[in-house]
Design goal:
It is built from ten helices and eleven strands. By secondary structure, the chain is an alpha/beta fold. It has two domains: 166 residues, D-Maltodextrin-Binding Protein, domain 2 (3-Layer(aba) Sandwich), CATH 3.40.190.170; 123 residues, D-Maltodextrin-Binding Protein, domain 2 (3-Layer(aba) Sandwich), CATH 3.40.190. The strands form two sheets. Strands 7-6-8-5-9-11 form a six-stranded mixed beta sheet. The radius of gyration is 21 Å and the shape is globular. Bound molecules: pyroglutamic acid.
Length: 324
């Protein structure tokens, strides 16, 4: 009984507070990648910009490296308001809605220019979908082009048969199926451990994630297939955004636009720097052998076909708009 009275008075206090003018807000922002990763550095800069432009009215605390929520939980946490903001890898949510995975398909958009073109057509539909879920997308930034990490040298996809393959998304698990490897889903935060213990022997990812995980300690080769550039997106809880006053909302949107521009540039720099780091650590950074590239392109063709079937007219419209 006592407890109920207490709860009621708390609700009354909350209501009184919400009708008063917006004074200050504190947000938690969850990410799944290390603090030093270029995405996280970019997001931290975004938080600092918002703080400054809002005159300290909106304070955003960035929780890096999956310390607040694990990667697959972040979307739901932002939706439910457990965190007001969070960064997701869109391709992780392909099973929920195929369009989220368009940038995770091998060789559909395989350069920064193509990736920017894809985001242009993907963004409006993604915004609409997320709005239905009570979410907003502030910006998206691609990971550097995806190559193949392997403990042993590779000539073609046949060399991947039977090996333990780290997947980070439904699409990267599907690649394993198609080449006859054994997929194991492992989050970026656990990649180093997984290769160190030989739980996995190969994966596709960027130089950036390999450098973050110091993979040169456990892996010998990275083949530059330039297969796709999956994007991280920064999501907001729509209600949290709407609770801000207009000048603070504007500060958020302006800082977000800056973060998107800065992030794409940072990704290109991270690509070069991380591959240099892997090389310095003793890895061989190699062009993809012709057979491997041809095999992977075939995998990409199959996956695009499967994706288009699942994504339906909406997916076809996206691909058509992208190719136009
Ligand atoms: N790094 C992330 C996703 C794509 C990438 O380059 C990872 O490997 O989990």
């Amino acid at each position: 009984m006592k407890r109920r009275v207490f709860q009621l008075s708390l609700t009354a206090a909350a209501m009184a507070f919400s009708t008063s003018a917006f004074a200050q807000a504190k947000w938690d922002l969850a990410t799944a990648y290390p603090a030093t990763n270029f995405h996280t550095v970019n997001i931290s800069q975004f938080a600092a910009d918002v703080d400054k432009a809002s005159g300290g009215k909106l304070k955003i605390t960035v929780h890096a490296n999956a310390s607040l929520f694990k990667a697959p939980e972040i979307k739901r946490a932002v939706q439910g308001g457990q965190a007001q903001a969070g960064e997701i890898l869109m391709a992780n949510f392909q099973n929920e809605w195929q369009i989220f995975g368009a940038d995770g398909l091998p060789f559909l958009a395989d350069s920064y220019d193509e990736s920017a073109k894809l985001w242009k057509v993907q963004r409006p539909v993604v915004e609409k979908k997320l709005a239905e879920q009570g979410l907003m997308v502030l910006f998206a930034v691609p990971w550097p082009p995806q190559g193949v990490y392997s403990k042993k040298p590779l000539n073609s996809a046949a060399d991947l048969k039977g090996i333990k393959w780290r997947a980070y998304s439904p699409a990267t698990a599907r690649i394993a199926d198609l080449v006859g490897a054994q997929p194991v889903t492992i989050q970026a935060a656990e990649v180093s451990q997984a290769f160190a213990t030989s739980m996995v022997e190969s994966m596709m990812s960027s130089g950036s994630t390999g450098a973050d995980a110091k993979l040169y300690e456990h892996v010998k080769y990275w083949y530059d297939t330039q297969a796709w550039l999956p994007k991280n997106a920064l999501l907001l809880n729509k209600k949290a955004f709407e609770a801000l006053d207009k000048p603070t909302q504007d500060a958020v949107l302006k800082a977000a636009a800056d973060a998107e521009t800065r992030g794409w540039a940072a990704s290109k720099v991270a690509n070069t720097e991380s591959l240099d780091k892997l090389k310095a650590g003793g890895m061989q950074i190699l062009p993809a052998p012709a057979a491997l590239k041809t095999d992977m392109k075939k995998v990409g063709d199959t996956m695009l076909k499967e994706w288009t079937e699942k994504a339906g007219p909406e997916g076809q419209a996206l691909v058509d708009a992208f190719k136009r």
